[in-house]
Amino acid sequence: MHSIYFLIFRRMRQPLLTLVVTYAVAVLGLSLIPGQDDAGNVWHMDLFHAFYFVSFMATTIGFGEIPYPFTDAQRLWVTFSLYATVVVWFYAIGTLLSLVQDKTFQQAMTEGKFTKRVKRIRDPFYLVCGYGETGSALVHALTERDHSVVAVDINADRVNMLQLENLRQYVPALEGDASRPLHLLEAGLKHPLCRGVVALTNVNEVNLKIAITSKLLHPEVKVICRTDSHDIEENMASFGTDYIINPFDTFANHLATALQAPGLYLLHAWLTGGRGHSLEEPVYPPASGRWLVCGYGRFGKAICHRLKKEGIEPIVIEAMPDVTGMPEEGYVLGRGTEAKTLLEAGIEEAVGLVAGTDNDANNLSIIMTARELRPELFVILRQNQKENQSIINAVKADMVMHASAIIANRIRVLLGTPLLYQFTSLAMHESDGWACELVSRISALVTTEGPAIWEVALTTHEALAVCSAMGQGRSVNLQHLLTDPRAREQSLPCIPLLLKRGDQRTMLPVYETPLKLGDNILFCGRYSARDRMEWGLQNIHSLNYILTGKAATGSWLWRLLQRKGLISTDPPSPSNDDVPG
Q1: 467 vs 67: which has the higher pLDDT
Q2: What are the extents of the domains in the chain?
Q3: Alpha-carbon distance values, 540 to 492, 560, 578 (Å)
Q4: Whole-number mean pLDDT of the chain?
Q5: Alpha helices in 149-273 (DSSP H)
Q6: Which of 266, 258, 296 is nearest to 282 (CA)?
Q7: Residue by residue, what is the 3-state secondary structure of 252-302?
Q8: Contact at 8 Å (CB) between 490 and 484?
Q9: Which is nearest to 271 in space by CA: 402, 423, 403?
């Protein structure tokens, strides 16, 4: 707001001074020039009436000569004053219109409105810096889960696009450089309800600056950054950045999991897929044999490093080794789009292919050429642009690496369902057989769409009925939460994945586990199960029916009709869709 006032006074100072001087001269002259009343006596207009007359005269309204008809000298002065004030008003209004159209002024006004809107936020929110493909996917995911978000992006077109998005919640957005502390402060960095800062720009140095600024100005806030540079990653970690996400290393780890334990990879994919995603099919990348890696950039290096750890020596195909760097074990010069290059690399004996260049057209060409030479190849495709999704789907690669989707999905899990992040981390230490068994249980609940994932915290805000019952000394166990509040003989189609009690975490807790206040539980299952579980958590009558089998009501009239036998206390029978598959 100070900058807005400064701009107004700086640009309007000269017009306002000119206007004041013109009015002062007109008023002074009119008060000094003698007039004549009806009796022929000489009189002088006082300053108040002179100012009053000049005020309406300058607007060209013209109420007439007051209080007596003017003399020729007064009329001559009024004529001069009239033209002078009109010209000055045109000058002032023109300067004001020019100021309103000035981009600097408009930006200052936009920032002022944005800052006021952020200050009025009354719910916890996350500050997302960068609204590209990754930021857009993350904002959509967070707002779908009723999280408040504030966005900052240096590109005006992206900010305007955000305003047109059909989001579940309104997202304040600012066009500004997130590396500048001023813009981060305007976006609510030091707001007491700011729960996290997410740096998602495509410049590693900018993300580093955002992380440093956030930790210095708001040390308690959670900071999540994307980076594709190991040097920047180490720098971020040195001052306590909470989560650093490298999409290339993340995918390489996923590939390693698929090589070692396909069941664990499938379980992770199902649980972190998000709403609306179809269930992925199992993938079995070959754990031995020749792999070809086309492109030795950041992604190619991450894949080669991981394959070597798995005992596989990949063959690199690179067109510009002087730019990307030369592999230690050698390489084949070329893009991989030509059959000659692939044959030189040994495509006829290969079992796996990674099309990992930074050009989607080249990656698609590599795969199509390779499949003509060896149709049974296991293919990994790097997707660079979201807009190419349709042709990426058409090529039907076994695995697709889309950096923006990986980052957005990882952060969505971190912020939206932190218990799921803990569960997947713990699951990586389990056996593949354990994961396959859990996958079978989940597939019995859902059909083609991925399972719903939700958390339940036993607090008065999220589970009022359960907390009230526990406060009265009643025992509630996990099985009660899994009971259908419409038919207690049936269980809800969901599975408890993780029980967190203080620092203790229990994987796949048994149904007879007694619950305590403050427990946090992670569930997966059908979306209908989450909605029905709310009844038992929040409605004391539904919970009482689950615990005792008696459908009590709070209305004395309803209870009277029940005692008279006029109303049945039996709950409605569930439909076939409600019975677990």
Answers
A1: 467
A2: 2-101, 106-245, 248-278+405-441, 451-578
A3: 18, 20, 22
A4: 89
A5: 156-164, 181-186, 204-217, 230-238, 247-260, 262-271
A6: 266
A7: HHHHHHHHHCHHHHHHHHHHCCCCCCECCCCCCCCCCCEEEEECCCHHHHH
A8: yes
A9: 423
Question: Is the previous residue joined to 67 through a cis bond, with omega within 30 degrees of 0?
Answer: yes
Contact between 217 and 185 under an 8 Å Cβ cutoff? The reply is yes
Q: What is the pTM of this model?
A: 0.78
CB-based contact 102:376 (threshold 8 Å): no
**What is the distance between the alpha carbons of residues 152 and 363, in angstroms, rounded to a whole number?**
32
Alpha carbon distance 86, 57 (integer Å): 9
Q: Is the pLDDT of residue 578 over 80?
A: no
CATH superfamily of 451-578: Regulator of K+ conductance, C-terminal domain (3.30.70.1450)
CA angle 98, 99, 101 (to 5 degrees): 65
Contact 407, 247 (CB under 8 A): yes
Question: What is the length of the chain?
Answer: 581
Interatomic CA distance for residues 2 and 391, integer angstroms: 51
Residue with tokens 């900071």: 223
Q: Express each pLDDT in 84-129 by its tens digit.
A: 999 999 999 999 898 888 887 888 888 888 999 999 999 999 999 9
Query: From CA 213, how far away is CA 236, in angstroms rounded?
Result: 11
Please tell us whether the domain made up of 2-101 is placed in CATH 1.10.287: yes
Fold topology of 106-245: Rossmann fold (3.40.50)
